Amino acid sequence: MDQGEKIIEVVGLTYVYPDGAPALKNISFVVYAGESVGIIGPNGAGKSTLLLHLNGLLRGKGKIFVAGEEINQKNLRKIRSKIGLVFEDPRDQLFMPTVFDDLAFGLINQGKKEEEIERKIQKVLSELKLEGCEARPARRLSAGERKKASLATVLVMEPEILLLDEPTANLDPGGRKSFINILKNLSLTKVIATHDLDLVRQVCSRVILLDKGIIVAQGGAADILNNTSLLQAHSLA
């Protein structure tokens, strides 16, 4: 794959939890525009913690650049307009009375006009095959619909980068297949933290293997995922 513009660059990122436990230790890597990168590793490896640093929800030592700009307090709002984070649990994403309200929330805060909000929401609902769900509360949706609605709240904001934490967790086989197909068809840059190695194989061109807060390996998805001894050593086989 030809490497284009660096859209994310992490340099020497270190983070320690408030209880003193180390979470990330001198992490450095690059993501290029248009890439899909899988972050894999066992439980407690630091995958979710890493994602939360990429949009500034957590702040460790080291530097993180997004689209050439270093994340800091002054430009945090601008950075977050470029990055959308989809949480593992839809309950962390969907909190309004209806799906429509959830999708409208960020657009309203941006000061968008009513007609534009309606147009953007209907476009995303159509793309994710969620038509007819807009008036329903999240609790009335299936697990697959909730996952797609969570994704929709991010896509409607038209980010350049999509961060996903365990996107196929708790989905049945049909819902999982449907969600993977959606991700495969999204052209924006994606960083996916997951245990689902088949998802990574289908969607990601490159893989970063984390364990105990350290990058153990990074490289082409096929090279990493076909290295059975490496995966077994890190509880992923």
Structure, described:
The protein is α/β, with parallel strands linked by helices. The protein is built from 9 helices and 10 strands.
What is the secondary structure topology, with strand pairs?
Blueprint: E1 6-16, E2 22-32, E3 36-40, H1 47-54, E4 61-66, E5 69-70, H2 76-82, E6 83-86, H3 99-109, H4 114-127, H5 143-155, E7 161-165, H6 173-184, E8 189-193, H7 197-203, E9 206-211, E10 214-220, H8 221-225, H9 228-233
Parallel strand pairs: 3-8, 3-9, 6-7, 7-8
Antiparallel strand pairs: 1-2, 1-4, 4-5, 9-10
Helix pairs in contact: 3-4, 3-5, 5-6
The main pleated sheet reads as: 6 strands, mixed
Mean pLDDT: 94
Task: Give me the secondary-structure category.
Answer: alpha/beta
Query: What is the number of helices?
Result: 9
Shape: globular
Radius of gyration: 18 Å
One letter per element, helices H and strands E, the order comes to: EEEHEEHEHHHEHEHEEHH
Give the uncertain stretches in residue-range form.
none
Give the key terms.
6-stranded mixed beta sheet, 9 helices, 237 residues
Précis, in short:
With 237 residues, the protein is α/β, with parallel strands linked by helices. It has helices spanning 47-54, 76-82, 99-109, 114-127, 143-155, 173-184, 197-203, 221-225, 228-233, and strands at residues 6-16, 22-32, 36-40, 61-66, 69-70, 83-86, 161-165, 189-193, 206-211, 214-220.
